[in-house]
Amino acid sequence: MTLEKLLQKIESLLPEINKENPSVSKASVGWHLEHSLLIINGSLKGLTMTNPENYNPKFSIKKFVFLNFGLIPRGKIKSPKQFVPLETPTKESIEKLLNLAKEKLEAVKNLPEKAFITHPFLGDLDKKTTLKFLGLHTKHHLKIIDEIIEGIEMIKV
Length: 157
Fold this sequence. Notes:
Elements: H1 3-12, H2 29-49, H3 61-69, H4 91-108, E1 116-119, E2 123-126, H5 127-156
Antiparallel strand pairs: 1-2
């Protein structure tokens, strides 16, 4: 699924932002959406700020496993502070981040292939790999959201 499609999925989940299910996650649906959008916006911005001549990829088993199998252990990796929602997410805060993500995604299409970000665990990721990372990370959080919502629906039955 493309990042554009994932952004559409995020948008479709806006009515669910206040849903919580502590047996699945300590965080609400809105928190997962906002966190995902903060990561997307930060990474897309990062692609525009690096010099492609400095791109220096290195092999790492973590990178290999993540990019090839999409495995992210739940609750094991702490996100940097700038990617953690500071307040309770609102429909407005998520919509603002969503619109920004759409704009940034369109803007990075014109960047060179060697535009990159430096991920704290995975090292340098070129544009194509960054977009793959963002897709995998977003799918990870959308899966958690699906489990939150499914768990609530099961309780109602």
